[in-house]
Hints:
This protein has 306 residues and is of the alpha/beta class. It is 33% helix and 22% strand. Bound molecules: guanosine-5'-triphosphate.
Amino acid sequence: MNESPAEGKTYSGFVAIVGKPNVGKSTLLNNLLGVKVAPISPRPQTTRKRLRGILTEGNRQIVFVDTPGLHEPQDALGEFMDREVYEALSDVNAVVWVVDLRHPPTPEDEQVARALRPLVGKVPILLVGNKLDEAKYPEEALKAYHALLPEAQARAISALDPKQVAALRAELLALLPEGPFFYPEDFAKSDQSFEEWAAEIVREEAMKRLWEEVPYAVAVKTEEVAERENGLLYVKAVIYVERPSQKPILIGQGGRKLKEIGQAARKQMEALLGRRVYLDLEVKVYPNWRKDPEALRELGYRSSLE
Ligand SMILES: Nc1nc2c(ncn2[C@@H]2O[C@H](COP(=O)(O)OP(=O)(O)OP(=O)(O)O)[C@@H](O)[C@H]2O)c(=O)[nH]1
């Protein structure tokens, strides 16, 4: 653990961001931090792994833990994702429970509320009704969610509104108990390696462009990152699919889809790094990787307990 800053008291803690798939958890995390650390797509269950985002402001530090959307697992990947949520909840100072105000609660929201119940009275639980900008009956919806866990403190926001996100950020910073920083003040905003981040960006761009079952069959692994003489950063990533029939869907006619995915991911990388990137993508088949615990580990879905 790192004691910091040099003088005076410090306040620090872990804040878990939980909720069912697609409610805006990753969007909220990225906007709380002011940088993009988590992948976002209109597809539910884009987030697969727990991810830490680190926010340091003055003498206060929050380590956010973004979690996959809690859902009924269909396979080994799904079980891994739910386990990630329960582990994230085991040792936190506050919980942000995100719900979608455009719709009333579903059984999945009830499942999240049940998972949070043991924390009542132990740590603050902030119920964040998100997507206020597009909600027709936000007050009624928030009330219905609040009824699932009346002990939570409820508020409505849009994760896309910088002012509302800043207010939530200030509220969370104020909740922190006194304690030393977990990361040095100048630590990057996420604990992901560049290789992991690059793979997540490619997966995000692929998921946005695929339909039905195919987005969920995609896994991405960064195989190489190398400096090139002309100032280019060379990044080689492999996109894995589960069946040979999925490969042409990803590549598209005349390679068009893969090119689109590559261009969009490269742009995101260049924007973050402020330099030119050569992104080399390849598509391979890894039969039924989602059902195979060994394959999950190989593709980076490793529990932090291992
Ligand atoms: N209109 C509106 N859309 C939002 C808001 N917040 C997030 N979204 C959109 O909701 C979709 C899902 O957002 P994510 O941040 O990926 O959601 P998530 O909860 O992390 O999803 P999982 O990875 O499935 O757990 C994306 O298309 C976002 O752009 C909001 O406040 N208003």
